Give the backbone structure.
Amino acid sequence: MPSVVIVLKGLVEFAGLLLLGQGLVFLMSFGRHESNPVYRVMRFLTSPVTRLVRRLAPAFVVDRHVPALAFILLFWIWVALTVAKLRLQMPAS
């Protein structure tokens, strides 16, 4: 069970870092992010996460806010997995 939590935590960290990198490339490209190949690769890799968040989010959430919402959701999933990992590693007393 601890190995499953560790693998899930690693995947969440990877997706979160990709979303963070995508946001940084968006900021540094000054409006030409769609023509940037690095941005397109990151968008492709994070598309499963953003699609899932788009399905889970209410309809009033604007599409351009979905990546930020996905990052926040991934952060809280990471916190929960970190707590689970720590609890699984603690010796039973």
Notes: The first helix runs from residue 2 to 28. The chain has a mean pLDDT of 91. The radius of gyration is 16 Å. The helical segments are 2-28, 37-56, 66-89.
